[in-house]
Amino acid sequence: MYTKDEATQLKQKFWTTFGQYITPQLSAEGLKVNWVNYKTGLKHVYFKMDAGKRWATIAIEITHPDIGIQELFFEQFKEFKNILHATLDEEWTWELHAHDEYGKTISRIFKQLNDVTIFNKNDWPALISFFKPRIIALDEFWNDVKYGFDSLK
Q: Are 105 and 95 in contact (CB under 8 A)?
């Protein structure tokens, strides 16, 4: 068991390691990008990678405080569902109006990897292999469809 400080340091070390590993990868537009803190350019829409004690997830999170607008964003993503799944080469889970760890209502589209932990360095290669192709594919997807969200800005 790790202390809170040790756990925080280990998480930071993983994300630093992942960031260094993926930094040479250019975006779909051929630009340098901060993959760990990916910016969609759209307020309330995030690409989020997370890992914990027993799992890892990568997600598109819609966090708009207005539930109706959040639903509009979610519906717009559904319009691009076939493109998303084709780009990712897999299907993801879709949740409208779920709750995050703080009880806030969000909607998300995500993929989860079970039976891994960020706290075991032996799992880090599996985590990197999980996150890297998916965040790159999300970038490619977003490059193709982001203009379809202009009316929701």
A: no
Task: Give the mean model confidence (pLDDT) for residues 106-117.
Answer: 97
In sequence order, which residues have a C-beta less than 8 Å from that of residue 54 and are 6 or more positions away? 114, 115, 116, 117
pTM exceeding the 0.90 threshold for the entire prediction: yes
Residue extents of the structural domains in the chain = 39-152
What's residue 153's pLDDT? Answer: 73
The fold of the 39-152 domain, in CATH, is: Yope Regulator; Chain: A, (3.30.1460)
Burial 112-132 (b: 16+ CB within 10 A, else e): ebeebbbbeeebbeebbebbb
- Rounded Cα distance, 111 and 113, in Å: 7
Rounded to whole angstroms, the Cα distance separating 103 from 92 reads: 22
φ/ψ of 36, rounded to 5, equals -70, -35
Q: What is residue 25's predicted lDDT score, i.e. its pLDDT?
A: 96
Distance CA 138, CA 124 (A): 21
